[in-house]
Write a structure and sequence with these properties.
Number of helices: 10
Radius of gyration: 28 Å
Order of helices and strands: HEHHHEEHHHEHEEEEEHH
Low-confidence stretches: 1-31
Oligomer: single chain
Number of strands: 9
Structural class: alpha+beta
Shape: elongated
Largest sheet: 6 strands, mixed
Mean pLDDT: 85
Length: 333
């Protein structure tokens, strides 16, 4: 995984649709240092890099090499993993990152190196036959990994199956990457085995695409269900009372304490919302709404209503924001 500034620069380049080596290497100031006039060799990829040290220059050249290859396959990989709905932008950026990180550069070679004006320059290359061999090995490994994941998932709880779905999504990107590379650069490649494995993974993801949540509250605390359910809808979480096959449970806890004196009714409620896994009972999140007090000269039920309204406002503040923010607060991101 590239460190510091590389992921950002590489992402910009990929999103911009760069093809091949960016501009001429003369722009880097290495034109009088490295020989870039060699005839084009279609049997290999060539990239250049520069840096304050030989190591940094080599890393820069490797990043350019990955960019050169991934920029030609990213769109096909995104199509192969079937991006859907509102998550296209978010998932699309994840796909591009995974593609750039998993380009098989293992057998790249460092060619020319030189030093000029306080800067190191490096040329690296990768034979297309080496890219094909590595892609074949990794494709088979990825197919086995997905099949093993699916086999183990059949014995897992609903919550664990939901988590496995996230792993499979990343594995599918890698599977599609190696398959696309072999389609482009390998002779006589058969995509059918990879597509069959991918179809099984997609079926599993589709059937486990929602985290099913059981929501419950004591009778006196039920006014808090409305803001909670609104937040769950914004977070695109599947919920309901006694939800069949639920993977997690959200409980609203609290018991009103009543006092009456001199014609005034006072109600105190200390409320908390707990989110737990159903399979293990693990506490995923605890939202303490604090102690709220309602006072009324009309009736005890009115004082309860006032205290609950304060809790509703507190809950809305805690569960604000977009889908990702709400899921993070509930511990189910």
């Amino acid at each position: 995984m590239f460190k510091t500034i590389f992921p950002f620069l590489l992402m910009l380049a990929l999103l911009g649709g760069c093809q091949g080596v960016p501009k001429s290497f003369d722009v880097l100031g290495g034109g009088d240092c490295l020989d870039t006039s060699q005839p084009v060799d279609h049997s290999r990829f060539v990239a250049y890099g520069s840096g304050s040290s030989l190591e940094r220059a080599t890393s820069s050249a490797q990043a350019s090499l990955a960019q050169q290859i991934s920029s030609t396959v990213s769109s096909e990989v995104k199509s192969a993993v079937r991006l859907k709905g509102d998550d296209v932008t978010e998932e699309g950026s994840v796909v591009i990152r995974l593609v750039s990180e998993n380009i098989p550069l293992d057998q790249h070679r460092v060619g020319q190196t030189c030093y000029s004006g306080g800067t190191h320059y490096v040329e690296v290359s990768l034979e297309k036959t080496a890219l094909v061999r590595n892609s074949q090995i990794r494709l088979k490994n990825q197919q086995r990994a997905i099949e093993q994941n699916l086999k183990q998932a059949s014995r897992k709880s609903n919550y664990e199956r939901y988590l496995i779905r996230e792993q499979l999504q990343q594995q599918l990107v890698k599977l599609a990457l190696f398959d696309v590379l072999l389609q482009q650069y390998g002779d006589g490649h058969n995509s059918q085995p990879a597509r069959a494995v991918a179809a099984k993974a997609h079926a599993f993801i589709d059937s486990n695409s929602h985290l099913r949540i059981n929501v419950s509250a004591p009778k006196d605390m039920r006014p808090l269900l409305s803001p909670l359910e609104n937040a769950l809808r914004r977070a695109e979480l599947d919920y309901g009372p006694g939800k069949r096959h639920a993977a997690a449970e959200i409980k609203i806890k609290g018991r009103p304490q009543y006092q009456s004196a001199n014609g005034r009714h006072v109600t105190h409620i200390d409320a908390v919302i707990e989110v737990r896994r159903i399979d293990t009972g693990e506490l995923l999140a605890s939202l303490r709404l604090g102690k709220k007090t309602g006072t009324s000269s009309v009736s005890r039920s009115k004082s309860l209503e006032i205290a609950l309204k304060k809790h509703v406002q507190s809950l809305k503040r805690k569960l604000h924001g977009n889908k990702a923010a709400i899921r993070k607060t509930l511990g189910v991101s």
